[in-house]
Specification:
The protein starts with 5 loop residues before the first strand and ends with a strand. By secondary structure, it is of the alpha+beta class. It folds into five domains: 184 residues, ATP-grasp fold, A domain (Dna Ligase, domain 1); 135 residues, 2-Layer Sandwich (D-amino Acid Aminotransferase, Chain A, domain 1); 228 residues, no CATH class; 129 residues, no CATH class; 124 residues, Glucose Oxidase, domain 1 (3-Layer(bba) Sandwich), CATH 3.50.30.
Length: 874
């Protein structure tokens, strides 16, 4: 019996096995008399015949043998090998003839069609394969259609699709691909409709995204569409957000491209209320047909709607899980011990937000243990001396700074006498003991095959990784963070007292221009940009493509406008950069993503360098190193005797410590990629067993709960659901996030008689009229638009010349300094990372304002007085 290589689009035989998920769905929609454009299926029999005739299956399996879903490079290699095989193979004449005849049967002469992949494992309940295979629009002519079909077949083997199937245990040998060839709707507007509210879970609402032109700009996230919420029962538009639409996808010869939206349409609503109601009613019909909420792609041409795809929504909140009213912001700050004193100081600077429950219980416990272990090694203190040093109040990290009489006795009799030894041995201890242990542990768990491990082994790895992290952090605090701050304070006092004259540079000038890890990372990115500039097509693509689009495809095949060899070489270089520098933390809480997880900020800086807007880090560092040497030479020339001796001693200590602090902070997250990988694998198993909704929900559990769930998994027991606890804790976290933690509890500005206000993380901040006061940390005066960034998810909002306003900056924020005119933070002081980097960049900075991110609006003009420590809002 001759296989059927094509079927009419409405053919009832277009099942999942023959026509794939997309094709079967379209046949079902047509049978229900819904407005679906005409077309035909190229069946899975055609794909299998193509593979058999070209003897591809053994080569496919051989290429997949070394693919590992946890190692993207292996997926890329397998994909590239398979797709090259497809490219070199020929479509059998019987298949080509069947496709040509079906195409000729469509209405019109040389009709324009869309050629869409339709996998047999696609659009299944619980799985979403959307976007993993290719679609080709504006295809015309039988030969061109046949070539597009072959390219669709090859797209079954993209790296993303291979990895997704592996992670979800989809049999790679059983998958095949059908193709839908469908007359292209000359859409004036298009978009997506969900027949339930994907944010709230409300089943009585439909949400519509609408943009001008073809729908690819909306599906691909290239444009901000209009957003409407419609009551499905009445058709009433409940909410409407009309976007400023700048680009649209239009047809051009041989394909599509993005073009500017005509000026008259940029701010015009795409759909009126009547059209929105009509579209929502179509959504109701589709949902009734399938018996479940649906994700629908639609197009509008000549006033009529067409449905081009419909699939189940795979990630919809339960209907009962509607958002709770926001919890009140905490008004009280209850101290665990009313007689103690607590500060947001030291490493708390790296924890500006409320902590995730897992880091608050597991992470802080490890840090306390690490500090105690360091104190035992360096000062011979009992192992539990600092067991409760770090804790949380209303979710925020605090450091306990009150000690019992016995603790004071130990500090005075053991720690103080050992301080000279710490100055001699602290750095070698960190460099030769703690750092190698951290590095070795991170490397071992980074390369471990996690799917092969039991839950208990995974949790053991988490504890081992955390112990190495905390030991390293404790050594850093003792050997670099503390001594660096002390050495800079001492040098500043000595310099001001014995050496500085009017017109001389400030003390920080003597400590700048060193080659720290953040500077090395910036140089490496600058070098990568220069390499890109030598490749015209690559440079143009990277410079002018939206960053989020680059993020979405930087591990995929080359864009059409970039030579494949250049793209692969760039991918290798960028992946190498992420491995070397992408572990710098945005926040010490391991629940937060890393630059290697969210590389958009690095790509923004790369684009800046490619377009020639950023200053060379080589030149900037060289200028500061020269300025440092000139300042030292001038001071030495006029000092003699005891003054010269005091200056030299203080300078030597401060300069020996200056680069170490930045290196230490940059290396805090060295083990986080391995740690997060372990936790998320454990979270995946909890999610598969129904304990939590998704792998990352593990960060909303507490340590004891993780331990209990792990034991239950080991025993093969049914796991209790923690979904409600996760939801409640997320609501509490949001409420705490709106609070401003006092820098000291009980509230005050002194500690043991010393004024410590300038050295503490920001509290409520002082506001006089429209001027916010903070700590002056880098001199200069700038008036410019403010850009308030709450985390890496906002980095793409930053524009060159903006004032960067953030809760805190860590080494992972460094790329933004190249664009910033000034820096303002809620948290920090003169020795915090942001202050040091701002001085390196020569831009004003005001730290520790307490509430800048709450009081300043993005786009608002502000004047930053870095020498006065003030921010004036226009």
């Amino acid at each position: 019996m001759t296989p059927e290589y094509t079927l009419p689009l409405a053919d009832p035989r277009a099942t999942l096995a023959r026509a794939g998920g997309k094709g079967a769905s379209l046949a079902r929609l047509i049978a229900a008399d819904l407005p679906v454009p005409d077309g035909f299926h190229v069946t899975t029999a055609a794909y299998r015949q193509f593979v058999d005739q070209n003897d591809l299956q053994p080569h496919i399996l051989a290429a997949l043998a070394s693919a590992d879903p946890d190692q993207p490079a292996t997926l890329e290699t397998a994909s590239r090998t398979i797709r090259e095989l497809f490219s070199q193979s020929h479509v059998p004449p019987a298949i080509a003839g069947a496709v040509a005849r079906a195409y000729a049967g469509l209405a019109g002469q040389h009709p324009t069609v869309a050629v869409r992949s339709s996998a047999t494992a696609e659009d299944l309940p619980g799985l979403s394969f959307a976007g993993q295979q290719e679609t080709y629009l504006n295809v015309q002519g039988a030969d061109t259609v046949i070539e597009a079909v072959k390219r669709c077949w090859a797209s079954l083997w993209t790296a993303r699709a291979i990895g997704y199937r592996m992670r979800h245990d989809v049999d790679q040998e059983a998958v095949s691909l059908a193709v839908v060839v469908q007359q292209l709707v000359p859409a004036e507007a298009a978009g997506i409709m969900f027949t339930a509210n994907p944010v709230t879970g409300a089943r009585d609402q439909a949400t519509i995204s609408a943009a001008w032109g073809l729908g690819e700009a909306v599906v691909g996230g290239l444009v901000t569409p209009d957003a409407l919420t419609v009551d499905k029962a009445t058709g009433a538009v409940l909410t409407r957000e009309t976007a400023h639409k700048q680009v649209m996808t239009v047809r051009v010869d041989g394909g599509t491209q993005e073009q500017p939206v005509p000026e008259a349409l940029t701010d015009a609503p795409v759909l009126d209320d009547a059209q929105a109601a009509e579209l929502a009613q179509l959504g109701v019909q589709i949902e009734t047909l399938y018996g479940m909420p649906m994700d629908v792609e639609w197009a509008l041409a000549d006033g009529a709607f067409a449905i081009v795809q419909a699939r189940p929504i795979t990630a919809l909140p339960p209907e009962a899980a509607l958002p709770e009213p926001e919890l009140p912001v905490p008004a009280e700050w209850p101290m665990p011990n009313p007689k103690s004193q607590y500060m947001r100081a030291s490493i708390v600077d790296l924890m500006p937000d409320p902590l995730s429950p897992l880091f608050a219980t597991m992470g802080l416990s490890a840090i306390n243990h690490g500090i105690s272990a360091m104190s035992e090694d360096m000062f011979n203190l009992p192992p539990d001396t600092f067991s409760d040093l770090m804790l949380t109040i209303n979710g925020y990290a605090y450091q306990q700074v009150s000690f019992s009489c016995s603790q004071w006795l130990l500090l005075l009799t053991r720690m103080v006498p050992a301080f000279p030894r710490l100055l001699r041995q602290g750095v070698p201890y960190w460099r030769d003991v703690a750092y190698p242990r951290y590095t070795e542990t991170a490397a071992r768990w980074r390369d471990e095959s996690l799917p092969d491990l039991s839950p208990a082994q995974l949790l053991s790895g988490v504890h081992e990784m955390l112990d190495a992290f905390a030991h390293h952090l404790g050594a850093l605090m003792a050997s670099t963070m503390g001594p660096t701050s002390g050495s800079e304070v001492l040098f500043t006092k000595v310099y001001e007292k014995v050496a500085r004259r009017e017109g001389d540079p400030a003390a920080p000038a003597f400590l700048m221009g060193y080659d720290s890890i953040p500077i090395k990372g910036e140089k490496a990115l600058f070098d990568l940009a220069r390499w890109c500039q030598e490749r015209e097509e690559l440079a143009a693509y990277l410079a002018h493509t939206p960053t989020q689009e680059i993020v979405a495809r930087y591990q995929a095949e080359a864009p059409a406008e970039v030579p494949a060899a250049d793209w692969r070489a760039w991918q290798a270089r960028f992946r190498d950069y992420l491995l070397r520098y992408g572990y710098s933390i945005y926040d010490m809480d391991f629940a937060r993503p890393l630059p290697m997880d969210e590389p958009a900020p690095l790509l923004e800086m790369l684009k800046l360098f490619i377009t020639g807007q950023g200053t060379s880090p080589y030149e900037r560092q060289g200028a500061y190193a020269q300025r440092r040497e000139e300042a030292v030479k001038a001071a030495r020339a006029r000092l003699k005797g005891l003054k010269r001796w005091a200056f030299e001693k203080a300078l030597k200590w401060a300069q020996s410590q200056a680069p170490l602090r930045e290196d230490g902070i940059a290396e805090v997250g060295l083990g986080y990629p391995a740690l997060r990988r372990l936790l998320r694998e454990l979270g995946r198993r909890f999610a598969d067993a129904g304990a939590i909704g998704q792998p990352d929900d593990i960060f909303w559990l507490e340590e004891a709960e993780v331990e209990t769930l792990t034991v239950a998994l080991e025993r093969g027991e049914t796991l209790d659901s923690h979904a409600e606890s996760v939801r409640e804790r997320q609501a509490v976290w949001r409420a705490h996030k709106r609070a401003t933690p006092p820098p000291q509890l009980p509230m005050g500005k002194k500690y043991m008689g010393f004024d410590v206000e300038a050295m503490l993380s920001g509290g409520e901040g002082d506001l006089e009229g429209n001027t916010l006061k903070g700590v002056a940390t880098s001199p200069g005066r700038v008036t410019a638009p403010a850009r308030v960034l709450h985390g890496p998810e906002d980095f793409d909002q930053m524009q060159p010349g903006d004032v960067l306003v953030a809760a805190i900056t860590t080494p992972a924020w460094t790329p933004l300094f190249a664009m910033a005119a000034a820096v303002v933070t809620d948290v920090g002081g003169p020795l915090s990372h942001g202050s040091i980097v701002a001085r390196e960049y020569g831009i004003p900075a005001v730290m520790g304002t307490g509430t800048a991110t709450r009081r300043i609006r993005s786009g608002q003009t502000v004047t930053v007085e870095g020498s006065e420590g003030t921010v004036t809002m226009a």
